[in-house]
Amino acid sequence: xxxxxxxxxxxxxxxxxxxxxxxxxxxxxxxxxxxxxxxxxxxxxxxxxxxxxxxxxxxxxxxxxxxxxxxxxxxxxxxxxxxxxxxxxxxxxxxxxxxxxxxxxxxxxxxxxxxxxxxxxxxxxxxxxxxxxxxxxxxxxxxxxxxxxxxxxxxxxxxxxxxxxxxxxxxxxxxxxxxxxxxxxxxxxxxxxxxxxxxxxxxxxxxxxxxxxxxxxxxxxxxxxxxxxxxxxxxxxxxxxxxxxxxxxxxxxxxxxxxxxxxxxxxxxxxxxxxxxxxxxxxxxxxxxxxxxxxxxxxxxxxxxxxxxxxxxxxxxxxxxxxxxxxxxxxxxxxxxxxxxxxxxxxxxxxxxxxxxxxxxxxxxxxxxxxxxxxxxxxxxxxxxxxxxxxxxxxxxxxxxxxxxxxxxxxxxxxxxxxxxxxxxxxxxxxxxxxxxxxxxxxxxxxxxxxxxxxxxxxxxxxxxxxxxxxxxxxxxxxxxxxxxxxxxxxxxxxxxxxxxxxxxxxxxxxxxxxxxxxxxxxxxxxxxxxxxxxxxxxxxxxxxxxxxxxxxxxxxxxxxxxxxxxxxxxxxxxxxxxxxxxxxxxxxxxxxxxxxxxxxxxxxxxxxxxxxxxxxxxxxxxxxxxxxxxxxxxxxxxxxxxxxxxxxxxxxxxxxxx
Length: 659
Hints:
Elements: H1 16-26, E1 52-53, E2 61-66, H2 81-90, E3 95-97, E4 105-107, E5 110-115, E6 121-126, H3 140-153, H4 168-174, H5 182-190, H6 199-211, H7 218-225, E7 231-235, E8 238-242, H8 250-254, H9 264-269, H10 280-284, E9 292-298, E10 302-307, E11 332-337, H11 341-350, E12 355-356, H12 369-373, E13 378-382, E14 391-397, H13 407-414, H14 419-427, E15 431-432, H15 457-466, E16 471-472, E17 478-479, E18 487-493, H16 497-511, E19 516-522, H17 524-531, E20 543-548, H18 555-564, H19 581-589, H20 596-613, E21 616-622, E22 625-629, E23 632-633, E24 650-651, E25 657-658
Helix pairs in contact: 3-6, 5-7, 13-15, 18-19, 19-20
């Protein structure tokens, strides 16, 4: 999730599930301004307890310096990393990831849940005594309202529920994203059968219900209890989800902010719900059940979170609580935003900021970690190799245009890259080699244990020689003097120091095999525009340095499918425009397979094909890292929890020696 603005937040439902993900990774680090390049060091950890460091001026306040100011913190609209972080601390859903675990959950607003063996029905029991910061109560109807609202607004976060709670193809054809069965529920509750055939009538009738939401209204009660729809209110404290397709990662979606409880009264007092439109008031105002509230917002500069003084979970007995319901220890969180890397570094080193954020996509690339690591008052934390990775870096190859439509050319290129050199000089200890398209440490990663592509320039030369290309090597040797020279162009974002360095290194590496590489630096907006074109367009990037990470923890759907299925070609996720009939057939059904053995077999087959076809050059997966004051404790990383989770943080004034 990115820095700066992406494309329109109104999504086309079929491809919405990945469009913004692709955009946001493309604009990774876009606003960073590089200072003087730091000198590399070999160590990653250091002792800090014997060095004098200034105490925080106020241990009730923590400041995180970040570079991605939010545009929206509405769970129906907000999508970028900085926005996710705020919503994670303000809003709550039924469940949440259990601390650092990526495959277990703890109850939040739910007290318990049951999952059908075929993964099509999920039933949740709702806690009694949950309320919003303003005191408004929460029950099963709150979630019916909140999730139907996200879908009907049809902004980027509706994509989380595509083909799960609403039909994406139908939404594209009709122009409305409507929870499946909701039109029939309206007909049942009102006696007006026109709702089942007129989608415009249905969409606006549902919006009217949501905008005038009264749980005591008999018609609305009848509507919510209709049994054949996406979400059914079985009783005030029991909620049933009925999925269009079996989906075993649905709990992962419910643990994310689009499935959060939003106060119906607050929404209806401030604009209500309109199909296909944002609520501008809700973009900048919050009313959640979570541990913090947004109390101040200076656009582009600062957001202030204050501990919720009416936090319902603070009153829970220990037997009903868990670590993710812990009330905030630090009462005020200030998120300050800047596009200057020098300012970020100065804020950290001076102690004016205690964190560098947001997590998922930190404000500074790894190139700056060595210099920060040398400051004894800071802790540079890099997750160990055993931890799951989330973000990775690749070079996409346009498989639809000459000469990269020739598989052998692409295979030659993947063997011309010295991956270890790039890992050492750019990742600075925060990366690892990988085989895409799934991130290391995630379920279903590389089931066949394929090795990363090896650096073999002689093999690359032999392949290109066999294809008849004219290659002029650095020593003056000319291969196939009567052939056509191989010239390529690499596009990259010029404001990202990591991309700049990689581009320069790749240019040298390809020159070693006689390939002339032209570098094409662009802005993030230009990059976005380029990959929004058809893959065969003359200006579509031949080669593009590209960051990627999924919206939620489904590595099959969010990593593998969207990067290899032709339906998602271009900005939707498959930037290489890879189009393989077998892969397309498999990935069309793969997300909704629930037999893990069968899924593993299919994933392995897709892996084998893409490995041989080489649509992408997989550079390295980025091990999560962050920077914090040595006094700050309670910071943790979970790729399912986007951004810092502030309630668990606290100051330990003995962790550093005060001056």
